[in-house]
Amino acid sequence: ANESHQAEPVFHHSAILFSLPIFLNFLGIGSKEPEKMSQMNPIKQRLHAAAAAAAAREEQETARIAAILSEVALGREDELWHVEDKLMKDQRWTFLREVPKELAAAAAPAEPVKKYKWATSVDAAPTFDYASSLPRENLLDVGWGPAVTAVRRSGAGSLGVFFVETDKGTVVLKGSRSMASEAFAALLTARLGISTPRWRIISNGTKESTVMIARLATLDPMKHASIFLNSQAHMFLNSFVPGKSLAQFDTAASVALLGPEGSLSTDGVSVLHQIGRVLALDVLLNNGDRLPLLWQNQGNAGNLIISRTSEGPKVYSIDTQVFPIGAEHTAQLESYHQRVTDLVKALAASGTTASLPAFTLVRDQLRSLLHYDIGDRGVLALQAGFLDVSGKAKAIALDRFELEKWVTLLRGVDETLVGLDAAQPDFILDIWDIFRVHGSA
Predict the structure, then answer these.
(1) Which pick of 340, 369, 392, 441 has the fewest CB atoms within 10 Å?
(2) What is the reported pTM?
(3) Nearest 5°: CA angle at 192, between 190 and 194?
(4) What pLDDT shows up at residue 330?
């Protein structure tokens, strides 16, 4: 969940200490040569000594953390990262720093009630510009030292999501009640070329997690991040996606993104085509927690993020999970297979020329969310996106060996990793076979 929030920054003694050398150099104090020290008055001498000591402490802290992290052997978490990294090689967009205001993150929440008469660090929160912040590219070298400058809990309803500002971009830390399910689904998302945040898993109790939580505790006066993350067996470290969730759009933002109602722009067609591809992914995963298609619910459009990049608007799938139907539930499984088969056959027969009932449900839901009707052309764009996955299944070598390798890596992180029971290659491959057999006319 991305948002913008205006608040006074929190100043900590460590931040003031680390900025002291810069301030003194600006005054011309910290830049004095040692041989000129004798010419300074006592006050300047003390200030110069304080600046030198602060710089030395910062250097020592950086070196100390680097030494700790250098001892961490590459484990299964990092093997997962390298698999993800390879799958994501074609999805390295350049994010636009200046995002149109209609597409910026949601408005800041109401001003919180102050606990004290005067503003204190308890009342304040770090200021992040979520519309212009950029993601950190490499999630392996965060370091968790002085280069990590701020942490803020998401205000979009999830207590376990934290935005962390670093010298090389923003990252997101989150817990999960279904970590293996999310990780498995994220690998499949990347495998199909659908945009999704970069991620890796950090296990609690490791040297990295210890350093990380200690650093975040110094930046968060209320200790929200450190208390929550300490309670998790494992955490996701995700790249930040600048933009806005589909659930946050109003009419003005919809028009800015999609074009005037009744006259979809090129960008609008592209966005709906990408959403159609995500819907195909959701059918593979039986993930109804996004938009209605084969599921009798409203879904959660907050799990789609729209971001501006150098390649145009990109639709990001977030918080994706797999919801397999076990073989023991024969009737439910057969029913789902039949509904998928009917949908894929109908798309292959007339998906580029006629609106199908299932996608009309999505159109109605989008109209309710966006206060904007995508029209028949928009429905055809959704269907074309779905067909871009199902109709090309024969050409995509998705096999059991690859999916089982992912499960093995997840199990290697921890045999008790939550959500492992949902990472079922058989369920995915059965749906993929329906795509492969019936997806093209």
Answers:
(1) 441
(2) 0.78
(3) 60
(4) 96
